[in-house]
Amino acid sequence: MKKELLQNTFLAQALGDAFGYLVEFDNWEKIKFKYGEEGIKYNPEVLHLTVSDDTQMTLFCLNALIDAKNNADILNEEMEDPTKIIYLHYLDWFKTQGFSFNEVNKNKNTNKLLTYPILFSRRAPGLTCLRSLSNAKMGTLKNRINDSKGCGGIMRVMPIGFYASNIHEAFNWGCKQAAITHGHPDGFYSAGVYSAIVFELIKENFDMLKILNMIEEILKNHVDTESILDCISKIKWAIREKPGLVNVALNEELGQGWVGDESLAIAVYCAVTSISFKEVIEKSTNHSGDSDSTAMLACGLWYLLNRDDSFKKDINYLDIKDCLIDMFPKINIED
Question: What is the pLDDT of residue 100?
Fold first, then answer.
């Protein structure tokens, strides 16, 4: 059951990413000019759905977790903090973007993902991710590599929520994963919050306000959390008081999604306030912001909230469908 949830969540995110990527760098006025007053519509059969770096990096994160779990199973031990393994897999992703292996990783050539030519393609990779992975140093929560709060840390974090054993682990691993490349609290705490939400939704705790309250209590035990706590308060307020935000109003109230806390806010809000996959993917895409990241994150949460997998047939329209079909059977996860 958990394996199927992970596969479907990944697919929902990949579809959201590919759809949002079509207009990632367009503001709302340009989207309307190109697609009409209601914006771009989700008709996958007539669109060319190409995933961005968001899905690429999420796939490498998932593969790292598969390796970490395999290692633990071989030793008959509990899975340990996978951050270092994730870092090595991100260095593998870095190679697919046209760069040489970092010295730390130069002799490592066993990553199965490196056998898929479709992944050796630059899809507007985040400059922060590229710069961080180029300097032979892994960023950590204690030794922050920069002061970036971009959404590059949160957009790839989803699989961690499936491999963590409790909400605290999901939060902590999510933060550490993001800190590899993003050193600002909004950059790594937003990833921890998203991972913790995923963990609770897997457990069929579908009360998002309750989940956010739980995470607020976790954040109170950490430093530099004022901004992310304000973000969570704004999300709860918008869900309760402003359920109809779209387009310009969505950006005015919750931001544009280029940074971690704003992408978290848009994703959670759109997931909770949408009644169909078509609604959530269009709502989280049609705005003047980082449409691929916000749509990706929103679609994953929407699926976990609703467990409606009617979008699965649309895998046939994704450019990396063969890679996903090959990879999914390799997922090793405990219910």
Answer: 66
Given a contact cutoff of 8 angstroms between Cβ atoms, the answer to whether 53 and 125 are in contact is: yes
Q: Each residue of 275-306: pLDDT tens digit?
A: 999 999 999 999 999 999 999 999 999 999 99
Q: How far is CA 83 from the centre of its chain?
A: 16
Helix spans in the chain (H):
2-21, 28-35, 53-74, 83-96, 127-133, 160-163, 167-179, 185-202, 208-219, 226-241, 247-254, 260-273, 277-283, 291-306, 321-327
Q: Look up residue 292 and give its two tokens.
A: 């691929």
The separation between the first and the last C-alpha atoms of the chain, rounded to the nearest angstrom, is: 7
pTM: 0.96
105 pLDDT above the threshold of 90: no
Those residues whose C-beta lies under 8 Å from the C-beta of residue 272, and which sit 6 or more positions away, are 208, 239, 301, 305
- The token duo for 257 is 């999604």
**At which residue do the structure tokens 């749509």 appear?**
295
Angle at which helices 260-273 and 247-254 pack, to 10 degrees?
130
Mean pLDDT (whole number) for 179-193: 98
pLDDT at 80: 95
- Dihedral angle, C-alpha 144, 13, 306, 186, nearest 10 °: 20
Beta bridge partners of 328: none
Residue percentage of the chain with pLDDT more than 70: 97
Cβ proximity of 86 and 111 under 8 Å: no
**Cβ pair 60, 113 in contact under 8 A:** yes
